[in-house]
Every structure is written in C-alpha cells, then in structure tokens.
Amino acid sequence: MTTRPWIIASSAILVLGATVFWFTRDEPTGSQALPAKLQCELPPSSADAPKPGMVWIPEGVFDMGDSVYPEEKPVRNVRVKGFWMDRTEVTNAEFAAFVKATGYVTVAERPVNPQLMANLPEDMRKPGAVVFKVPAQLTHGDDPRQWWQYIPGANWKQPAGPNSSIDKFGQFPVVHITYEDAQAYARWKGHRLPTEAEWEWAARAGAKALPGQHDQHDQPTSANTWQGIFPMANASEDGFAGLAPVGCYAPNAYGLFDMVGNVWELTADVFVADRPAVSNSQGLDPDEAQRPPIFKTLQPNLQPKTRVIKGGSFLCAPNYCMRYRAGSRQPQEDDLAVSHLGFRTIYQP
Ligand SMILES: [Ca+2]
Ligand SMILES: [Ca+2]
Fold it and tell me: Do you find a cis peptide bond into 276, omega within 30 degrees of 0?
C-alpha cells in the first residue's frame, strides 16, 4: 500500500517544472492520430557487450553540474568508474517482460492508504498517476494544475488512464514508473540504477568540461524536446509532439540514445537542494560514483522522499524547463507516477 506523501500532486508538480504529454486513443488534442513512428531502427548491439543493448561507459573525471538553474551548482570535479549502460530508455516491452516473469505490481496500481493522507481529494485516493494534457486555455497564470491531471487508473499499461493502451507502443519508453518500480526491475535484471554522477558522465560522453554559456539556442536539434511556447504551442519540429519510440535520434559518442529528452530518467541518488561541494584537496572525489545511493546521514527508518531525475523530457522548452542538458536535475517524489518519467539501468561486473 502506497502513501502518496506528495500532497495534492500540485505542489509536487510545481517542483517538477516540466511535464508530460501522452498519446492515447483519445489524443489530448482530440486527434486520433498515432505518433509519426511506432519504432525506430537501432544499430546492431555491440558484440562484446555482456548483455544485448548495453554499451560500455569508460571511467573518467569530469566537471559535474551546470549553471543554468541553482540546483545544478556547484560545478565540481568528479571521478566515475566504468560501467555498462542500457543504450536506450527501458521500453514498455522490456518492462512487460519483467511484469510477466515476476507478477510485479507498480506503485501506481496499488491501493492508496487514505489514513496517511487524510487531506487527499477523493479521486486521488484511487490508484492512478499524473498525466500531462495540453490545456484548452491558460486562466490561472503558470499554475501547473492547468496541464497536469491526476487520473485514476492511469499506470504504465494505460498511460493516459483507462481509455488508453500501450498495445502499439512496445518500443516507447515505459512511464509512470516510481523509484521502487525501477529498482525492482533493475534487481530482476541483475543491474542497478545509475548514480547521478554516473548518469551525467555517460550523457556527457567524454566531454570533460562544461560547454560555454547557455541560452535558449542550446536546445538540442536531435532529441525529443518541445519546440514552441510550453504548454500551449508545440511545433513538433523534432517529429514528435508526445513521446517518441526509443532510438529515433542520433546517439551520443558512447552510443547512448535519448539521454537528453524523451523521458526524464530516474537515478539512485536522493535529491539534496543544497548539496555540498565534494572536492577534496586533489580537486576531485574519487568516491563520488561509489557512494551509496542513500546518504548516510538519513535516519535508518526515514525513507527518502525524492530522487534526482536527469536529462529533461519531450516537454522541456526554452520558455519552461531548459533542462535538455546533461547537467540538469530535478527532484522526483518516490511514489509519484508521472507520464514524463522513465529510467535506464547500468551493470557493473
Ligand atoms: Ca518533440
Ligand atoms: Ca531520456
């Protein structure tokens, strides 16, 4: 039984600062159109990969962090050891195989415990998830409740609610996955979630120093983001208004697809807004990638409430959420299922 400690989703969503859009049988725009593609062709998997679809991320040292939003600072020098990483976001087909093999039930499918959240609105006491919909109009400023809706019955199998389906979307990234769900999948695979440092190093793909000053022109041209004024005008110049199948855009230099854009990706790290610099006297922290995912300062029985998510989503636009970068980060409630969030795993022999 989940507790949903995110209080009336709106506050959580406000923190998210970005949002989701999803194809449904009854598309948010009223259209019945399917996405431009249902699958994109991936190159052959590397012959030396221990498991199909993973690529090697070599060890290295880099300047982690960025300077666009306060939570990305301070930039600091970090060392990461090598690991294998899923070259794509985990897909619906992959997650379905896990559920079929284990009978796993995701957090968004489980009953909510109303005793722990007495102030929850009635419909939020039903299992469900938060789904992005393009608002018909904006009448309440930038209140994100205008484009996010809690939909009872929404979950990974029916991402927009009971009238939606993933029947044709096996190669799309799975969404409405919480930290617990992602951990369960990773354990089943014999993998784990990346730390923030591992994820960011992999996304940089060997670029050790930060790029220069950021501005709106940094929006990537080969990634699934939002072109236009969020949340009303989406020009879809990248080919997709909503989610894209995995692997439709050029991979980075390590062979990783969609690290930036498409879905945000969960990491193992607890989100700390005022994280300390981790440099030692040599200017780097050799243990950054080896730190346990849960900070040692937490009380044994205190469950962390938020994790770091990385890379931005198809909802990130220049006017809202310029987080289509390796160094961007946001907090994500542990038991909040949302339609712009997925994950990928790593394997360290
Ligand atoms: Ca797009
Ligand atoms: Ca992504």
Answer: no
Cα(66) to centroid of ligand 1, in Å?
Answer: 23
Region of poorest pLDDT, from 94-108, 112-126, 127-141, 315-329: 112-126
Name the residue ranges covered by the structural domains of the chain.
54-276+297-347
How confident is the model over 163-191, as a mean pLDDT?
97
Ligand 1 centroid, distance to 228 Cα (angstroms): 10
Q: Phi, psi at residue 342, to the nearest 5°?
A: -135, -150
Nearest ligand, measured from the Cα of 313? 2
Q: 283: helix, coil or strand?
A: coil
CATH superfamily for 54-276+297-347 is paralog of FGE (formylglycine-generating enzyme) (3.90.1580.10)
Q: Which ligand is nearest to the CA of 35?
A: 1
Query: CA separation (Å) from 37 to 33, 88, 92, 221, 298?
Result: 11, 16, 15, 18, 45
Please give the model's pTM, rounded to 2 decimal places.
0.85
Helices and strands in the chain, H and E counts:
4, 11
Q: What angle do CA 35, 36, 42 make, to 5 degrees?
A: 105
Q: How far is the CA of 222 from the centre of ligand 1 (A)?
A: 10
Task: Give the closest ligand to the alpha carbon of residue 89.
Answer: 2
For residue 329, report the distance from its CA to the centre of ligand 1, in Å. 19
What are 255-272's pLDDT values in tens digits? 999 999 999 999 999 887
Section 70-89 average pLDDT: 92
Q: How much distance in Å is there from the Cα of 224 to the middle of ligand 1?
A: 4
Distance 113 CA to ligand 2 centre (A): 31
At residue 92, the 3 state secondary structure works out as helix
Region 333-343: mean pLDDT is 90
Mean pLDDT of the chain: 81
The Cα-based distances of 317 to 18, 19, 22, 228, 298 in angstroms read 9, 10, 16, 7, 35
Q: Which ligand is nearest to the CA of 257?
A: 2
**Ligand 2 (single-atom ion) residues, CB below 5 Å:** 258, 262, 311
Least confident residue range of 71-75, 87-91, 92-96, 276-280: 276-280
